[in-house]
């Protein structure tokens, strides 16, 4: 609020005191308050460090990632169409959210074997190769998700077609197999934060495996190994792209998050609720903010900033008194009062002068952007004919709204004052 706006608001509700020898306007009083609880074990408007066991975050990942699956399978039922093939499109990447990304896994290039006039054509396929287990552990300042594949059975199958008949070759000609060994996916996450929630941000993903092919395949189908290693590169690229896309989604990060409120409850939220009521406790719960996460040993040390709370002791009236117990001036004139208010943080409300006997001053809004003491002047108008004496008492009234939604009020002590009209000519000056 600008100086001119403050002056206009003030002069709409009360009058500025102008002494005959000074001729100056005095700025109106502005008050604020916010709870600090300096003598209380509840420390507010500050930061606090809380240890969060990494095991809690790891549990959240394990629970969510249990639904992750990569399935590689292009070996299906034989079909004579297209010259004969076992090719099927059953490969996919399945995320815990339910999103399924189909993967295109082609068979190897066709190899002709058996001499110049041979009708036999060979291709290599992957037969139902899927992820099976995972674990999560720390890896420096990151969390590493290791996903492993099943190891039983033969994952590489050889299909043979009789080109003329478009039928499968005899079984013994297809009794060549291979294994995919040491297959794994590694995904890395770093902890991020929003409000009081730790979420996990995807950093990187790799995929790798080794091949073990029988000697016949290595000698006769020399392109098979390079074919599957090319597939590995393509899958790795696609999986990483989809991994980053999936785990950067807000709803997925929320599903893998850890909320700190359960760790903060006994440290702060319950204490505030017990002292100031459930509304104040909920305010802390809903407005606390993580400002930093440190990786220290087996814990994440989280720095949390707690919000300020406005309650019944937020405003302190340090002093309130008339500038002079008796003032003689030309009527009408303003009789001034000095008020000093001590505040802790930002708050706003209403304030006015209560006069007895007579009419109370009009209420006006006040606001202060930060903590500290404020000494300002309010005034009440003295009117009458020359020689008239006015004896009254006044006190300061201030109200504000607490975090709990309640309205709070404080009054100063009553102060006596006397105003005397000395002459007919007014010394009252309009405010600037």
Average predicted confidence as pLDDT: 80
Total number of β-strand segments?
26
Domain module tally: 3
- The CATH class of the largest domain is identified as Alpha Beta
List the helices and strands and how they pair.
Elements: H1 3-11, E1 47-53, H2 54-65, E2 69-72, E3 75-79, E4 85-87, E5 92-94, E6 100-102, E7 111-112, E8 120-126, E9 129-139, E10 142-149, E11 156-162, E12 167-168, E13 177-194, E14 197-213, H3 215-220, H4 223-247, H5 250-255, E15 258-259, H6 261-276, H7 278-287, E16 289-296, E17 299-305, E18 316-322, E19 326-329, E20 333-343, E21 347-356, E22 364-368, E23 372-382, E24 389-401, E25 407-411, E26 415-421
Parallel strand pairs: 19-26
Antiparallel strand pairs: 1-17, 2-5, 2-9, 3-4, 5-6, 7-8, 8-11, 9-10, 10-13, 11-12, 11-13, 13-14, 14-15, 16-17, 18-20, 20-23, 21-22, 21-24, 24-25, 24-26
Helix pairs in contact: 6-7
């Amino acid at each position: 609020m600008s100086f001119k706006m403050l002056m206009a608001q003030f002069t709409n509700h009360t009058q500025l005191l102008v002494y005959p020898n000074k001729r100056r306007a005095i700025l109106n009083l502005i008050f604020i308050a916010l709870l600090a609880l300096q003598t209380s074990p509840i420390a507010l408007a500050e930061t606090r460090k809380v240890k969060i066991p990494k095991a809690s975050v790891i549990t959240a990942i394990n629970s969510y990632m249990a639904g992750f699956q990569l399935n590689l399978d292009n070996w299906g039922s034989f079909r004579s169409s297209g010259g004969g093939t076992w090719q099927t499109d059953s490969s996919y990447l399945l995320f815990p959210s339910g999103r399924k990304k189909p993967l295109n896994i082609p068979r190897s290039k066709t190899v002709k074997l058996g001499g110049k006039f041979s009708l036999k054509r060979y291709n290599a396929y992957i037969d139902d190769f899927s992820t099976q287990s995972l674990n999560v552990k720390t890896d420096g300042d990151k969390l590493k998700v290791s996903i492993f594949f099943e190891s039983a059975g033969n994952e590489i199958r050889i299909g043979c077609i009789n080109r003329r008949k478009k039928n499968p070759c005899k079984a013994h000609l297809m009794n060549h197999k291979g294994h995919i060994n040491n297959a794994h996916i590694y995904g890395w996450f770093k902890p991020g934060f929003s409000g009081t929630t730790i979420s996990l941000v995807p950093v990187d993903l790799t995929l790798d495996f080794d091949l073990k092919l029988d000697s016949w395949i290595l000698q006769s189908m020399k392109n098979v190994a390079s074919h599957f290693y090319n597939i590995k590169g393509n899958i790795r690229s696609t999986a990483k792209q989809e991994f980053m896309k999936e785990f950067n989604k807000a709803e997925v990060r929320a599903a893998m998050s850890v909320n700190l409120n359960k760790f903060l409850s006994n440290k702060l939220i319950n204490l505030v609720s017990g002292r100031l009521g459930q509304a104040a406790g909920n305010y802390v719960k809903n407005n606390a903010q993580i400002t930093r996460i440190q990786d220290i040993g087996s814990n994440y040390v989280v720095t949390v900033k707690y919000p300020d709370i406005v309650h019944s002791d937020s405003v302190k009236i340090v002093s309130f008194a008339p500038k002079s117990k008796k003032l003689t001036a030309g009527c009408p004139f303003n009789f001034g009062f000095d008020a000093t208010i001590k505040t802790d943080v930002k708050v706003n409300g209403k304030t006015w002068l209560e006069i007895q006997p007579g009419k109370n001053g009009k209420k006006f809004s006040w606001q202060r952007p930060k903590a500290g003491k404020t000494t300002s002047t309010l005034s009440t108008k003295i009117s009458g004919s020359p020689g008239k004496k006015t004896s009254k008492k006044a006190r300061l009234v201030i109200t504000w709204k607490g975090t709990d939604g309640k309205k709070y009020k404080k009054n100063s002590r009553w102060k006596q004052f006397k105003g005397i009209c000395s002459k007919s000519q007014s010394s009252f000056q309009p405010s600037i």
